[in-house]
Amino acid sequence: MNNSVLSIQNLCVNYITPGNPVKAVNDVSFEIQQGEIFGLVGESGSGKSTVVQAVLRTLPPPAVITGGKVIINNKDILSISNTDVLQYRWKQISIVMQSALNALNPVLTIREQIKDVLEIHGDLTGKAVDNRIHELLSLIDIDVSRLDSYPHELSGGMRQRAVIAIALALMPPLIIMDEPTTALDVIVEREILAKIIELRKELGFTILFITHDLNLLLEFADRLVIMKNGKVIELGQTQKIRTGGEHSYTQKLIGALPSASGPRKKGLLSKPKNRDFGSTPLLEVKNLSKDFPVSGFFRPKLIEAVKEISFQVFPGEIVALVGESGSGKSTIAKLITRLIRPTSGDIFLNGSNKKVSEARRVPLEYRKQVQMVFQDPFGSLNAVHTVFHHLARPLLRHQLIPKDELFNYIIEMLENVGLSPGEMFAEKFPHEMSGGERQRVALARALSLEPDLIVADEPTSMLDVSIRMEILEVLAKMRVKKNLSIIFITHDLASARYLADRIIVLQHGSIIEQGLAEDLIQSPQKTYTKQLVKAASPGWFESLSFDQQKGLDNA
To answer: Most CB atoms closer than 10 Å: which of 128, 316, 329, 552?
Structure first.
């Protein structure tokens, strides 16, 4: 007896271009059975999001469905009218989007956004709507006092829970989770996933979970399909794929990132032969604090984002700042690069302050010596300028390279970060490159000024897992080649373990623990650090409380 909730048969989607059509989805087929967690895995450009948009009938031009069927409730929704499709959305199938802040309307309260779905797509009115809203917030563990909050007033985890509440509003049998935890730190990510799995058991819905992180789905999915270049390359039970699967690409994804626990793998990233960084720090931060006013004009309420932070970074050393969202990591990065001014404290570079902490205008020499690589490689590059322009502008501003030598120098910098041939990449615009290539451009721009210190703020968090180690290796090689110091900011403890020499753990704006990277991973002292290591290690799903996972083995 066929018990499928969704059946996709030979789906094909093309993107119309001035030249030949681009086959984004090519003859994709799979079925999702009632009650299971079905994983759809693939890197950027693999076609997984196109499949989802085809299922929801939300594909934008120039995408065209050229063949196949999408069957829900024994009906092919690709062959019905747009009006009839509206009867399926939210009632039969709903979606939890990747970025909760973008998925929620910034000018409507959480109450209003849930109410819209219930009134427009459901049959509830009046008091029944309010009762249902309260039930939904109880399900996702958000206090009803936050109902009249706007999205920007909630934390990332709370926003994601609100999006889940909207998806559950009409209790559809199938919910699509499109990278629902990508932008969250590891502890909040595990909390959200635990809640999703708990709700699945309690309410009996089916989940199509989409991600580029195969290791994440190996913890809790029942079956998986792996896509590459618009095609399904592997489909099977999670238990079988966990052992390595049948395809070499599957094995590559499984081994894409090392673990934050267990024996340390050797030879993954380049390391300097001499690990003695001396006794004279390149950077010294003393009692650094930053307060942000959040309300009021005459007597504003202040939030202490960073509290009395002190640490040192030595020449040639990589120091990782690790912590959950809101721990102060990015604020520290902006303070050190002087994108914002500290409330109090001092910053010393090469033993000199040069009024960096107090001055409104930081000396140009400091800007040259301390460079930053941002989290979003697309947002940090201007879409209307070529790669050559992005690298040439700071070089001309600092008058480092004569104009007649500029082109050759930029080509060399691009090839140093793995963009070859450099001449070809110099002519490209940001939209013509992948996320990994854009981040390499951002690295080349920062390195072109030959800084003493690079502050890398989550430089791999928005990249596919299979290319994260490639970007980390660029940083590792540049450290060895140029004796470069790096402050590596991340919530990914596994990356910090293998790249950094020391790890500093932050919580609520304060340093709670620090030490040599491997020592801290193997023997964390503080409860919070132990939670970070546990959440970033394989087997975290098995450590869920009995109440969260009881009965899942029988699901």
So the answer is: 329
User: Does residue 153 contact residue 110 with C-beta atoms inside 8 Å?
Assistant: no
Q: In DSSP terms, which residues pair with 226 in a beta bridge? A: 41, 234
User: Which residues span the domain enclosing 490?
Assistant: 283-538
Q: Domain total for the chain?
A: 1
For residues 488 and 320, is the Cβ–Cβ distance under 8 A? yes
Pairing of strands 510-516, 502-507: antiparallel
400 belongs to a structural domain: yes
Cβ atoms 252, 423 nearer than 8 A = no
- CA 342 vs. chain centroid, Å, equals 27
What CATH number is associated with residue 460? 3.40.50.300
Does a structural domain hold residue 403? yes
**Residue 349 and residue 452 in contact, taking contact as beta carbons nearer than 8 Å:** yes
State the Cα–Cα distance between residues 295 and 222, nearest whole angstrom.
48
pLDDT tens for 256-292 read: 767 888 888 888 899 998 888 989 999 999 999 999 8
3-state class of 176 per DSSP? Answer: strand
434: left (phi over 0), alpha (psi -120 to 50) or beta: beta
Does residue 461 belong to any structural domain of this protein?
yes
- Which amino acid would we find at residue 486? I
Dist. CA 24–CA 44, nearest whole Å: 11
CA distance 555 to 548: 13
Indicate whether 265 belongs to any domain.
Answer: no
In the predicted model, what is the mean pLDDT of residues 130-147?
89
